[in-house]
């Protein structure tokens, strides 16, 4: 149960000063609390003996009042210190998690669902925060009050009576230990069910358009209800065990009161203690209720913290497969590309490689086109060129230097990438365009948005570049999102520009204009463009035809037209479709 406190020892050491002040305040509060019953017992004995004067009564009441004010002030101090510390722990762990997420490879985000990662960053951190706040508060307060109360019972009343009445207390520790093991197991299941529900919510919100388009609202709601039922069921299982603490504490407390009544009455009759002592003793016994209740709450808090901390550390212990070289090359990315992959497969796939025997050499300043059926492996080539994965049989070099020898920051700075499904942040168009280069002057933003054929779109809106795009660009068409993403890639002025089917949602005329702009702007820079439309790559210096992860042909547009039947048939079919198309513009 207390392992979590040991695991968080690094944080308690970091905040030892503030925790030390808080504990000192707690001890002073406990001492002040223990004095009050002694004064009350003294007043009763003086009343019984007929020696109580008005002056004595006023003095003793004034002392009680002063102690109450002192305890109020001290409680405020230690609560403020402890809960501020708990917020610091949450912030530290949240930063560690977020930093870890940003450094992980693509495989990590394939292995973990978004909802699961969000659950770690919310529920698990909340449980840890409560350990460092409410948990420490409860532990220190229960211990301080319990020790001072027991000491007062022994010193100011009678040690034998105290011994009789605390006989039931060890049973509480036994109950707490056994229930803690059960809570640990059940709480882990509760967190897993919450992660599943969280992931469902995130996925449903992101895919609400598709859900509505297919009329699957009721079906999705039923599936969500099942997730909710599972969350309720697992949490109910936790609460059933948790609910056993209070009755157990109540039973033990009542047993102690009965024993006190029996032996206390006997001691008063035999003259060992006075009536005032017995009244004070009952007050002390009442004060012991909180430490006992606190121990019950503490066991629950610590067990939940144990589970949550273990889940977080398990996540943080996962290492990225993309590691920085011992002495990374930090020279600017440039030169020729040599791509030679004998075999590559994704870790979660079957034995069939995603790429097999794909080789090409691209000179600096040239443009490479990638064509092939859906799922043929074009996107995988981009992922390897950006070093999303390292586990492959082969070699990739830029300017003769292995990609794995470059500093990861150097790769990021030298490559501009636009994916098939461009991601936009819930910010303005201007913020999205400047994302990779926040200090880009407005003149350059205008220039690059014109090259990406998105500048004119902004002139048609009241807020222009300050228009909010909504979550993931929900307020924009597919073509607008692609063109904004292209402008964003251009603003970092990369030596290598990779477009992964990034013109699929724009009409043929707009596509032609953008590609013509590229021919001028990026005349001496390297570009790789994958596309389903052959027209997107006809001006490329080299075109690769990929099928089922293999390179089946390569050459110029004219060469492939002459010798590759699939390439020729696709081009002719697309040209025919282009001729019968009416109008233009972006389409979703």
Automatic annotation (TrEMBL):
It is found in: Cell membrane. It is a multi-pass membrane protein. The keyword Ribosomal protein does not apply. One of its GO terms (cellular component) is plasma membrane. Pfam families: ABC_membrane, ABC_tran. Keywords: ATP-binding, Cell membrane, Membrane, Nucleotide-binding, Transmembrane, Transmembrane helix, Transport. Residues 339-573 form the ABC transporter domain. InterPro entries: AAA+_ATPase, ABC1_TM_dom, ABC1_TM_sf, ABC_transporter-like_ATP-bd, ABC_transporter-like_CS, P-loop_NTPase, Type_1_exporter. One of its GO terms (molecular function) is ATP hydrolysis activity. The chain crosses the membrane at residues 21-44, 56-78, 130-157, 163-183, 256-275. This is Uncharacterized protein. It comes from Alloiococcus otitis ATCC 51267. The lineage of its organism: Bacteria, Bacillati, Bacillota, Bacilli, Lactobacillales.
């Amino acid at each position: 149960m207390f392992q979590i406190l040991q695991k968080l020892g690094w944080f308690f050491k970091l905040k030892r000063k503030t925790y030390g002040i808080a504990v000192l305040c707690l001890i002073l509060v406990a001492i002040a609390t223990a004095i009050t019953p002694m004064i009350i017992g003294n007043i009763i004995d003086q009343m019984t003996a007929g020696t109580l004067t008005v002056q004595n009564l006023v003095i003793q009441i004034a002392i009680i009042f002063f102690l109450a004010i002192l305890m109020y002030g001290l409680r405020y101090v230690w609560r403020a210190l402890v809960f501020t510390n708990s917020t610091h722990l949450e912030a530290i762990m949240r930063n560690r998690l977020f930093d870890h997420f940003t450094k992980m490879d693509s495989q990590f985000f394939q292995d973990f669902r978004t909802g699961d990662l969000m659950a770690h960053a919310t529920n698990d951190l909340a449980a840890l925060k409560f350990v460092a706040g409410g948990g420490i508060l409860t532990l220190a307060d229960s211990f301080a009050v319990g020790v001072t109360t027991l000491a007062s019972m022994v010193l100011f009343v009678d040690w034998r009576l105290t011994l009789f009445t605390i006989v039931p207390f060890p049973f509480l520790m036994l109950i707490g230990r056994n229930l803690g093991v059960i809570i640990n197991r059940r709480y882990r299941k509760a967190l897993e069910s919450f992660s599943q529900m969280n992931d469902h919510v995130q996925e449903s919100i992101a895919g609400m358009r598709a859900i509505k388009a297919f009329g699957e609202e009721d079906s999705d709601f039923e599936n969500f209800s099942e997730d909710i039922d599972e969350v309720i069921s697992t949490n109910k299982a936790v609460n059933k065990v948790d609910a056993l603490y209070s009755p157990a504490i109540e039973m033990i407390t009542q047993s102690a009161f009965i024993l006190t009544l029996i032996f206390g009455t006997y001691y008063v009759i035999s003259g060992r203690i006075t009536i005032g002592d017995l009244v004070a003793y009952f007050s002390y016994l009442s004060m012991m209720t909180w430490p006992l209740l606190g121990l019950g709450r503490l066991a629950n808090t610590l067990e939940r913290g144990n589970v949550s901390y273990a889940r977080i550390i398990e996540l943080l212990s996962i290492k990225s497969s993309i590691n920085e070289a011992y002495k990374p090359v930090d020279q600017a990315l440039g030169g020729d590309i040599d791509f030679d992959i004998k075999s590559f497969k994704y870790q979660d796939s079957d034995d069939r490689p995603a790429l097999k025997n794909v080789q090409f050499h691209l000179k600096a300043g040239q443009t490479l086109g990638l064509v092939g059926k859906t799922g043929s492996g074009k996107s995988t080539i981009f992922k390897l060129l950006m070093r999303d994965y390292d586990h492959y049989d082969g070699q990739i070099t830029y300017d003769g230097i292995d990609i794995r020898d470059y500093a990861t920051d150097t790769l990021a700075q030298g490559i501009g990438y636009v994916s098939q499904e461009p991601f936009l942040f819930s910010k303005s168009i201007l913020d999205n365009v400047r994302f990779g280069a926040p200090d880009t002057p407005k003149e350059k933003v205008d220039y690059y948005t014109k090259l990406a054929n998105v500048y004119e779109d902004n002139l048609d809106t009241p807020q222009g570049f300050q228009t909010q795009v909504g979550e993931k660009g929900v307020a924009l068409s597919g073509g607008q999102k692609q063109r904004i993403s292209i402008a964003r890639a251009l603003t970092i002025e990369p030596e290598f520009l990779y477009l992964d089917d990034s013109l699929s949602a724009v009409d043929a005329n707009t596509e032609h204009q953008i590609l013509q702009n590229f021919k001028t702007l990026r005349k001496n820079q390297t570009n790789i463009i994958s596309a389903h439309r052959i027209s997107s790559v006809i001006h490329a210096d080299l075109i690769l035809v990929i099928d089922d992860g293999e390179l089946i042909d390569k050459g110029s547009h004219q060469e492939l037209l002459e010798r590759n039947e699939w390439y020729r048939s696709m081009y002719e079919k697309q040209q025919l479709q282009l001729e019968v198309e009416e109008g233009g513009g972006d389409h979703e």
